[in-house]
Hints:
mainly alpha, 1 helix, about 80 residues, single chain, about 100% helix
Amino acid sequence: MRKIILAAGAALALAACSQEKADDAAAAATDAAATASEAATDAAATATDAAAAATDAAATASDAATAAASDAAAAASDAAKKM
Length: 83
């Protein structure tokens, strides 16, 4: 009878230890998921900022190209008038 009680106590202790490890693993997985979610949110914000900067750069380049073409057309017109 004593051996059965000792075996049952050992089994309970082992089960409690296993449950504690499972709880620790679940907490670690939850923390990892939260960290990954924060990183994904930060990456999305950075991508949005980069897209906005690229849009601004494209608009600036377009404006510069338009101004250069206009200046070139004006210079060509002036040169033609002088001929």
